[in-house]
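The aim of this short unit is practical: by the end, you should be able to scan a pair of folded records and say something sensible about each. We start with the first protein, listed as its amino acid sequence and then its structure tokens.
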Amino acid sequence: MRLAVIGAGAVGRSVVELAGEYGHEVVAVADSSSATVADGTDGRAGGIGVDPDAVVARKAERGIVGDADPDDALAADYDVLVEATPTTLGDAEPGFSHVTAALERDRHAVLANKGPVAERFGDLRAAVDDSDGEIRFEATVGGAIPAVSTVEDIEPGHVTAVRGVLNGTANFILTRMAAEGLDYDHVLAEAQDLGVAEADPSFDVDGTDAALKCVILANVLSFGAVDDPDAAREFTLADADVSGIRDVPGSALRLAAEDGRTVRLIGEATGETVRVAPRLVPENGTLAVSGTQNIVQIETTHAGRLNISGRGAGGPETASAVLGDVGRLE
């Protein structure tokens, strides 16, 4: 498959670097201010893909991926658009417009960007209905963990709930607080020094990131469980009940440990509700994953409870989910 990668952060660069290993060819790459488009991708014969090493090196050295305009990448002759720009809320732009532009050309789109799927899922489904293209978005939930595809394989109508630890930064902080008896502010500073937490950690520690992932899962459950999309309930971040970890005191973790329990930021999605909040879980239970690990629990009507754990973030990890989705479109 020929890929146009929009977004040249950690995930976009990793897709460019790894696509060849999965049997795909990158024919265009764009960041916010530049693009590179391979010769021949405007429909002429004899085109070859872009040089991944050159693209990544130029981005590192000069802060751009090429000398073309970003719109040139969107207009290239590709089979799949990979939307890997940063997540935005509300109107989910510019990611939403990138995806719909691909669908209007009857191309497929694979998203690593959570915004369009969490904030405008109904609009995306409507665009898909009017197109010969499809969308996939495994990478928007849990990085390398195949949460979305597992729910789809089981069939959403046979899944009653999906819950789990879905943010590595928050989980690292809670793990360190419990292990060392430290307070939140101390561990947050440590996480920032290690690069596990951003300078502004709000998206992670306030539960927003986990909530977006749960909203996406709720949309999968809601739309997948009905034959008529008009009968499905569409979820956005505004529908989620969200509490973060800023106010979790170290004393709470110490008291929990005395009872054989610990605290984790747990997100849960059904076809009717989305909740994210710190919860007490058994210290040696499946939800008590440590460090930056994530876990997803899928409650099913016939197969019981399924647990899937792994790395929930990172360039190569998330790129593997993107490229897995590309393979499903072949």
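Turning to the second protein, read its sequence before its tokens, just as you did above.
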Amino acid sequence: MSMRIIPREVIVEKVADLCFKAAVDLPDDVYRAIKRAGEREESPIGKSILVNLVKNADIARQERVPICQDTGVAVYFVEIGTSVDMSQWDIYEVLEEATTLGYTRGYLRLSVARDPLEDRSNSKTNGPPVVHLKLVPGDKLKITLAPKGGGSENMSALAMLKPLAGKEGVINFVIDTVRKAGGNPCPPCIIGLGLGGNFEMAPFLAKKALLREVGERHPNPYYAQFETEILEKVNASGIGPGGLGGSTTALDVHIETYPCHIASLPAAVNLNCHAARHASIEI
């Protein structure tokens, strides 16, 4: 089987453009969800916040400026076809170069520190990015960028529950996480819930869950119903838009699962702010 060659410079340029697009264009599904929430919200303050979020998204799209000043850490979900020739480039290096180009060329805020403790100075490249790779059949390269701001990321959580905790334990963990977060993750949020796997897999599942379109239910009816149940309980918390009260604390709850050890029930919550940004390209 012949291998497909994708020039390095093509990937760099397309991903650099993706960085800017993700920063300024709120996905249509999120935009519609915020607009619908504003029509339903009974709290005057909550309604005002939601209406202004729609206006903010409109201005960002029209004037080509970021939706939020925190343009986040660049998180990439990459699917590489097994027939793509990767001998000419290193995908990690390519994405780091593209991130630097996209963020500096687009005058997007650079938000990455060089080191967690020893050197908190700005890397001035917004890199290195976080990269998740998956090999798939075919000769395509699909790249999804999900810029993740610090406010919502800081409010995420992981719990290694016991299996006997069951659905009730998971619900309590999610609600407790959302209550502790309050207005910090800039609600209304999208809640990614990763269940199963192990200590490192559950948070990945939670972040991956954030890529699903708002309103799209889990293909398994059991988890589809569970998503709806959690969403109703979260929105009954009263936290509301901006944490200032109301019935729209979350726009949606998305669950991703993976088999796990018989003695474990890993659960992770990854919160996304109202600026739930993501964009994809296929090369």
